[in-house]
Specification:
It is a single chain. The chain is of the alpha+beta class and about 600 residues long. The chain has 20 helices and 15 strands. Strands 2, 4, 5, 8, 9 and 10 form a six-stranded mixed β-sheet that branches. Strands 12-11-15-14-13 form a five-stranded mixed β-sheet. Strand 8 and strand 9 form a beta hairpin. It starts with 13 loop residues before the first helix and ends with a helix. Bound molecules: calcium ion (2 copies). The site of one calcium ion has 7 residues, from helix 11.
């Protein structure tokens, strides 16, 4: 999805080799005991809610019995496997171990004679609390322009990188007031992904998704403590973390005309080095319609959220709304300014080869920004010239397709409109619920019992964010119409990401028994610490191999490799972590709902 071409790469795997040698001196018995864990028996490696659904998937099953065992291998529950109706993408049928009716809290294994054991898992309330919080804390580790202190970052503490107080105006971005080579200050923000650049388009969907998490579940999000420098200042920590990026975004608007620079970047990707070692000049480049509308949408949403914290943040909500309106005005005057990096490089020096995030269709960005501004201002004018229903598709959001972000906002603020809401609202609601119904139809026939596993096309670049965004759509539908199936299949996609999948990985660094150890992420590669920075979501299974690194299988859901060169399957990115953070925290916030019907 980031579609970034990389240079100056070097591999660093000596640490893993050393770890493997240490493990080889462990007693043979313990090796045998662990050898079969998680190979044929796949499930959420974190665990399950006592009253929630609990499913394990068994590959190569010989019989039809399964057992839940304590970690001392004592049987506490027995059940029968069901055979999947449809096979995996590789053509094999699976055994489905449904132990939902086993509700006793504890630590367990799923055992299937002839197939082996699952990894250990827990049954307990709030079982996802820690991994959900870690996926937001991950943004602290992505902060530019600050040192990470040991008190907050533990062994991943590091020196400050990229102060970005002296950023050049690239010739593509020159204006009367800011000629090429002029200097602006644009500090803070999150590094985008495996690289150290900052892109407004991708920051837009990311920041909005995290703001929505707070907006949709404010009571729960107040309980999520992150141990970051701002903790304890009276704001929920998720908002504290968002502010680090929001304050950077605010500096990316040209105050003279309201247009927003597409990105703040080196001219080329850095080597695989720590951020403080990267000292290349930084530029802001060309203003564009996608960046400016994304900025308008996020700032309008932020004004709505932060208006409740005027004591702690005097003036912020007002500034956000003023800057959102200025951005909107620029976009209305410049409705089709594409960021075309190749064309820019033919015209201007220095050439820029970092992530392009090029988009040519702004219908969805206009819908998103107009929806946010309408809700924030309660003025219907923003929607006047916008076709809210340009087509019948309901694509889950990506950085280049944000229509549903606008729909979610309109629907959840439905009541605020009173009788003067957009006339399309009821149709949008109908389409969202139909999309959710469509999504869950047939998921129970798949080999892994998930929406994610329905179609090969779900397994593109950043497939784990597809799984998470499907989960968000189902949760948005559940909030409109409390069909328990929506919630259960949202949870099933969380189970997918945390281990019930074709690759057998829990795709979040540091959470689960088999997790990515070599994400394509510069600090994780360069810091000399064996464990990668925790709470990061790997892109996931993707048979495309755009990086040229061979994956062990090209079956779509198995096409994953834990290799730090494999940016097509194993990069991390802020726009992938955000939907995971939404899904995992939303499921935690809604966990008591599982008790109600069963
Ligand atoms: Ca678009
Ligand atoms: Ca490392």
């Amino acid at each position: 999805m980031c579609n970034k071409y990389l240079r100056g790469y070097r591999k660093s795997c000596c640490c893993l080799l050393a770890a493997a040698l240490i493990f080889s001196v462990q007693p043979v018995l313990s090796q045998q005991k662990t050898a079969s864990e998680g190979v044929n028996v796949r499930l959420n490696q974190t665990g399950f809610y006592p009253a929630g659904p609990k499913i394990g998937i068994v590959l190569n099953s010989k019989g039809d019995d399964f057992y839940i065992q304590t970690t001392a291998k004592k049987n506490v529950y027995a059940g029968k496997l069901k055979r999947s109706i449809k096979p995996t993408f590789g053509g094999a049928y699976t055994g489905i171990a449904d132990f939902s009716e086993f509700k006793t809290a504890g630590k367990y294994l799923l055992y299937v004679p002839g197939s082996g054991y699952s990894f250990p898992f827990e049954i307990k309330p709030s079982v996802h609390h820690n991994v959900a919080a870690a996926s937001i804390k991950a943004y602290y580790f992505m902060r530019a322009s600050t040192a990470l202190k040991e008190k907050y970052a533990g062994k991943w503490s590091r020196a400050e990188g990229h102060p970005d107080t002296s950023v050049l105006i690239h010739v593509s971005a020159a204006s009367d007031g800011r000629p090429a080579g002029a200097i602006i200050s644009s500090p803070r923000g999150w590094y985008d992904a495996g690289d150290y650049n900052k892109y407004i388009v991708n920051s837009g969907i990311t920041t909005s998704t995290l703001l929505s998490l707070y907006e949709d579940f404010p009571a729960y999000m107040k309980t999520v403590k992150l141990n970051i420098p701002e903790s304890g200042n009276g704001l929920p920590d998720v908002l504290n973390e968002i502010l680090w990026n929001l304050r950077w975004m605010l500096t990316m608007q040209d105050p003279a005309d309201g247009g927003v620079y597409h990105k703040l970047t080196n001219v080329a990707f850095d080597k695989m080095e720590m951020p403080d070692k990267s000292l290349e000049p930084r530029y802001v480049v060309q203003k564009g319609t996608a960046a400016t509308l994304g900025f308008a949408a996020v700032m309008a949403q932020a004004s709505r959220v932060f208006t409740k914290f005027k004591t702690q943040l005097p003036g912020l909500a007002d500034s956000c709304l003023i800057q959102a309106s200025k951005a909107w005005d620029w976009a209305m005057k410049n409705p089709n300014v594409v960021y075309n990096q190749d064309a820019m490089n033919k015209q201007f020096e220095p050439k820029v080869s970092t992530g392009a995030y090029g988009d040519r269709n702004f219908k969805d960005e206009f819908i998103w920004a107009a929806s946010e501004l309408t809700v924030a201002t309660q003025k219907p004018g923003f929607l006047k010239d916008i076709n809210l229903l340009p087509d019948t598709t309901m694509p889950v959001p990506t950085w280049s397709q944000v229509k549903l972000l606008g729909y979610y906002t309109l629907l959840k603020n439905n009541k605020a409109f009173g009788p003067n809401g957009p006339k399309e609202l009821s149709e949008i609601k109908k389409r969202l619920l139909a999309a959710a119904d469509n999504m869950i139809a047939g998921a129970d026939e798949t080999a892994y019992q998930t929406v994610m596993n329905k179609f090969a096309r779900h397994f593109g670049w950043g497939s784990n964010s597809e799984a998470a965004n499907e989960g968000i759509l189902l949760i948005q539908a559940y909030r409109l119409s409390p069909n328990k199936k929506y919630l259960e299949y949202a949870l099933a996609n969380l189970d997918y990401i945390l281990g019930r999948n074709g690759a057998g990985y829990s795709y979040i660094t540091g959470y689960g028994s088999k997790t990515p150890m070599h994400p394509h992420h510069r600090p994780s590669v360069a810091d000399g610490i064996v464990e990668p920075i925790p709470g990061l979501l790997a892109g996931g299974a993707n048979p495309g191999m755009q990086d040229g690194i061979k994956v062990p299988s090209t079956n779509p859901d198995e096409a994953y490799i834990d290799d730090d060169r494999a940016y097509a399957a194993n990069e991390i990115a802020i726009n992938w972590n955000a939907p995971f953070a939404y899904l995992a925290n939303a499921i935690e916030a809604l966990q008591t709902e599982f008790r109600k019907s069963k």
